[in-house]
Amino acid sequence: MLSSLIYRSHIQQNIDEEMIIQMLADANQKNKQLGISGLLFYDAPFFFQVIEGPEEAVKVLYEKILQDTRHSNVVLLTHENIKFRQYPNFGMYFVDIKNIKNNDVTLDQYREENNLNPIDNNYDSKSEKFIRQFIERKYNQNLHKAVSNVLKPFSHPDLKENSGFRAVPPNSHSFAFQSVIDCNKRKTVFLEALARPPHGDNIEDYLAKLSQSEFEQFDMHSTEDAISLAAQLGIHKISVNFSPNTLFKSIDVVDQIENLLRKYGLQNSQLIVEVTESDFIENHPLAQKIISKLRSSGIALAIDDFGDGYAGLSLLAQFQPDIIKIDGSLIRSISSSGPKQAIVSAIFYCAESMAISVVAEGVEDEEDFQFLKSLGITQFQGHLFSKPEINNYIEHNWGKN
Length: 401
Known about the structure:
This protein has helices at 17-34, 55-67, 97-102, 107-113, 126-135, 140-148, 203-208, 212-233, 244-247, 253-263, 277-280, 287-297, 313-319, 328-331, 338-353, 366-375; strands spanning 2-11, 37-43, 46-54, 71-81, 91-96, 158-159, 174-182, 187-196, 238-241, 271-276, 300-306, 323-326, 357-361, 379-381, 389-390, 396-397. The chain is α/β, with parallel strands linked by helices. It folds into two domains: 2-148, Alpha-Beta Plaits (2-Layer Sandwich), CATH 3.30.70; 158-397, EAL domain (TIM Barrel, Alpha-Beta Barrel), CATH 3.20.20.450. A hairpin with a 2-residue loop joins β2 and β3. It is elongated, with a radius of gyration of 26 Å. The relative contact order is 0.11. Mean pLDDT is 84; it is low at 144-150.
């Protein structure tokens, strides 16, 4: 079965044009043996390659590319099965964009002269669209800062020594607190209260066993515990996850939340109510009224796991939350995934245009963090910065920088 794989990468600075030519000559011999063909564009310092050939051979070649230290910032744009080769000449045809520009010809003219057009003259194919984006340097919008190393390096904060203190929840519902940091302002923005069920069970499994009435009771009692723990620990701002069936059941729920805040000496502005995107889309006729009342009371609204459900951007238009937290499934390996980069870039642009704060959650990898930072995202949550602490949290030591 034939497949097509397209990627872009950044060539290391110590690789000159002579070395590139030799590298291509060596690679072409191997490509012929593997039955690999395609196009390789070079727009210093970027490579863009369309690889076509037997599926396993394409996978093997791409793995070697990933391990080749002459490349960095390798980003996979697409890998899919194809019926026939778009660019059938065996070997990898090399196109240096500089030569096209120096010869004062258009890309279309150059390809026509060198027989590089797609075999079916289908210029609406995915391959052709990616080629056009590369030629027009649209990729630069995402990558030029990251690969040029023009970003100010981020000095990760140390964690202060764990005091060993454990706050006591009044209803025996434990929580693990995890920081959301702002790397520009160099501070903790808020802490998320993550419910932890008894006996170390999985929280989803535990909640699935509860009846509707037990679930609603858990939601309110655990919310009280989260607020109480925050007060005991001196947390300046927390976010608490709510089930929509509890939050949107009655307009009175906002009064109940306010009463809990007053009971433990917290201001309304110290609470963020989180609802997941997939839960949000249920038909809750009171949702808009309750969200309006939350806002008028000074309690912020966050959509959690954004990008994991199917309501998508329509949620932003309808409810305009204060915060969206981009789901970890879109964040993991984003530094090497073109589709994820495109999706997260679009989410961030839309949210920023509506003055909605964006948090990238589930950040565990330094390269993912650096790419997200290059997009303009400043707020992060994940094990790269801190792990959740049961009934406690460990402060960051930001230092003077």
